[in-house]
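Bench notes, afternoon.
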Amino acid sequence: MANLPQDLLEKCKQKLINAKADILNRVRESRQDLYNTEDAKGGDEGDQTMRALAESEFLSMHERLRKQLMEIELALSRIDKGIYGICEETEEMIEADRLLAIPWTRLSIEGAEIRETITKRYAR
């Protein structure tokens, strides 16, 4: 069980909720923008290429936001389970400053370095 100070836990939870709302709003706005530009079907090859590029950019951004949203949901779940703030790699407490900067993080700085070293080792 994580022994985070209650005020830190509340700050992180609020940051997670705000980040979740921001992501959902960004997805909704980008969808509306994409659908508004798709209304103008046809056009020359340049117009069609620009629409295809916009759609590709939208899908790429949407995937990044989906992954971040998933991390936020997992962090909120860890708060509910009482295991928020514990590094998955070292099983030590994650630094308070790191949690405030990246409230969905699952790794301490040391844990992130360990994971990066392992990733580099096996990437060859």
